[in-house]
Hints:
By secondary structure, this protein is of the alpha/beta class. The protein is built from ten helices and six strands. The radius of gyration is 22 Å and the shape is elongated. The two termini are 32 Å apart. Mean pLDDT is 86; it is low at 10-19.
Amino acid sequence: VVLHGLWYGWFDAVCCMGGCTKLAALGKFFEKVLQAVLANVNFDVVRCLVLAGPGFVKDQLHAYMLQEAQRRDLTAIQTHKSSLLLAHASSGYKHALKEVLVQPAVANQIKDTKAAAEVRALDSFYTMLSNDSARAFYGPGHVMAAHEHLAIDTLLIADSLFRSMDLAERTKWVAMVESVRAANGTVHIFSSMHISGEQLQQLTGVAAILRFPLPEIEDMEF
Length: 222
């Protein structure tokens, strides 16, 4: 879930007029990030805070946060500095989160969290889709048909489906979730505000890994 967004083009702020420098712009950016962390992160609940990005900016941010925490006596940062984790990302945009979450150091820290479980479930679906497509269905029609055969082992469903304006539609998906669980299946409800949830939305918001292949349904059109 995006609690706080910062977009800061510090490279555009490099100039000579008014004493504006890259260093000063970076400092302002780091301070905004620090304030966002202090306002939104409860370290009594959050297991780790990942600082990710390309190049050395993340390292500079990390150093700034620790330095300022000591200078200002920011107990939350000082006490939980071991919870700050550095990771490489190809960019600073939201779509790079998936590559961050699968890095071993990060994955080990968040392995028991809902976000990690969603990433693993989606990866498992794509692997099955690639290796045995008759056991990996997506789209309401195919998933419903698989459910009628009691074939669903793992159901991946976006929370947006439970917010449909159509009561019958909402009721249908709630019933499916309960039925899959009753049949000892696993259900992952994806947040549409998380990167893995956005990926699932691209697959219509619902997908399933099956217990056994259903090739006769795979080629059907709904």
